[in-house]
Specification:
Layout: H1 2-26, H2 31-42, H3 45-48, E1 53-60, E2 64-74, E3 79-80, E4 87-89, H4 95-107, H5 136-140, H6 165-171, H7 188-202, H8 206-218, E5 241-244, E6 247-250, H9 260-263, E7 266-268, H10 269-280, E8 284-285, E9 288-289, H11 293-300, E10 318-322, E11 325-333, E12 338-344, E13 349-355, H12 361-375, E14 398-402, E15 419-426, E16 429-434, E17 437-445, E18 448-450, E19 457-461, E20 470-473, E21 481-484, H13 490-513, H14 523-551, H15 563-588, H16 595-617
Antiparallel strand pairs: 1-2, 1-13, 2-3, 4-7, 5-6, 8-9, 10-11, 11-12, 12-13, 14-15, 14-21, 15-16, 16-17, 17-18, 18-19, 19-20, 20-21
Helix pairs in contact: 2-12, 4-7, 4-8, 13-14, 13-16, 14-15, 15-16
Length: 625
Amino acid sequence: MRFLTAILSGLLLFMTAALSLAEASSTDKNSETLADFFDEEIKGSLQKYNTLGLAVTVVDKDSVLFSKGYGLHDNARRRAIDPDMSLFRVASVSKLFTWTAIMQLVEKGKLSLEDDVNLHLNNFSIPNTFDRPVTIFNLLTHTAGFEDHWMGLMFLSDPKKVKPLEEVLAEYIPRRIWPAGHYSAYSNYGTSLAGLIVQNISGMPFQEYVTKYIFSPLKMANSSFREPIPLNLKGYPPIAYKQVNGVFEEGYFEFNSNIGPAGSLTSSAADMARFMMANLNGACLDGRCLMKEATLNLMHSRSFAHHPSLNGWTLGFMEKKVGEHRMIYHDGDSNFFHTMLSLDKTDGTGLFLAVNTDEGGELIEDLTNAYYKRFVPVVPPHAKKQRNPDVEFANYEGTFRVNRLSQTNFEKLLGLIFELSVSYVGNNKLEISSLGSRYTVTPKMGDYFSNEDDSRRIAFSRQKGKRVDTLFLNDDPSIAFFRIPWYESRVVHLAIWFITIAVAAGTLLRFLYHNFNFPRRSSRESVYLKSNTLISALQLTFFGALLYTIVVESNRLFNGPTLLLQLASTAILISVPLLAWAGWLAVRERSLYSGLRNSVRSALLILQVLFISSLHYWKLLGYQS
């Protein structure tokens, strides 16, 4: 019996060891396992995601573990992607170099993370809207409290729109919407401001500083913030693509120099590999160091989060917990290029992905998640009893809108897209819904909720009394969602717009039906009806121009408001005095008509007032810059 027990015990130990070895080997990153994974995962993916070319590189602190190109860099020449030579616009991954420059200056004592940014600005200043100033720390963690702008600043097709960095930042100073340090709201302006501060302190253009103190020490010979692309770069110039009717067509060169420190970097996968290796090796590579290891550790440390149980910010990187591994990362998106740089701080490896096609962003996201799933050990859920707290679910129900919006021009219209609806669906669950997404979560502790497998985590905060007024997502630490009243919701405003369009179309058709003249009417009523017809024509013209601009000319908006949109916004502004005139006529002649007709006229007048109010709310009543 003892002999049999010993055999069974030995067999059990052997099986456990074998399973552990199998698990370890299944997540082991080496050239063979990485090649097998990416070759299999990308097989057919380029076609599935309408993407022409993709570059991949994986590193540890000492070497490149895997580097390969898939698809084409140049469709006309049929030139394949080469991770050493193919250049990509890395978009917001550029920010990591700006933050590295800032931390170098912090280490040298030339500025402090707690400095008011105005101490380092020469020819303009950030308004002191609140008692607390905007600090360098706020820029690195995107907690300055700025509204968001993009029009006229980024992804420009017209190089004539490019201006010196300081001139642009002085012209486009955003409003401060809430005090610094309260919420994260991703800000290209804030990063660009940090780049200007690097420029002011160092006494050299930002592009030159980064080349001298980051690219040169790391031997990143194919990297530059300059636009157009410098001729001294040896790599293949980046070519942007979009798929139109199944054919890959070249896109335009996107000028980002107006916010250069936030998104104008051009680089190769090979150069980005060297940057990742330095970040994994105490800021040093081949005997050259960007900063002290202690400074790098500070940069990589968690610095801000909306809630202790959610992902947050380091000084420049976003956090992501995958299994028991801590990732710090930054992604980048332009109209055509999409990138991802992710450092696994647990096993000391880094991943960089880049695509050259407009629809490739989803491929980057899905490939990154597949990589995590394949190479990060799965942690079985802890079998612990979840307490069922006593929750007043009504406190959480409502509509929440993203805080990363403009509040001063029609860019605010993006708020129609980025809304979340929270509702109680019974069984101790809240449902979170948005355009194309719906999931449920249950309460865990306080205002923290998650779904069953913990893949979806959210939290709420209560800034004013007991009522919940803010929602945070674990998936994106760079934004928050503020509660809005029902009359500001997307449903209400779209309903007003659609009813207005229907009434305007009906009014216009009625006018045409009567052959440009109404039946026998009093002269005053004729004026009233013709005024309404003109108002309806202006409204339909406005909606047609707005729809055309969004669907056909959206990319042109990056250069600034199109002439068509400006004219349409001005036209709708002209309708306001016409509306006031028609309303006055309707009120003056109420005694001449039946109760039903007066009720209809009153309802139409109220609708027009609501419509004008809605346009004003979305900054569409005349072009507002």
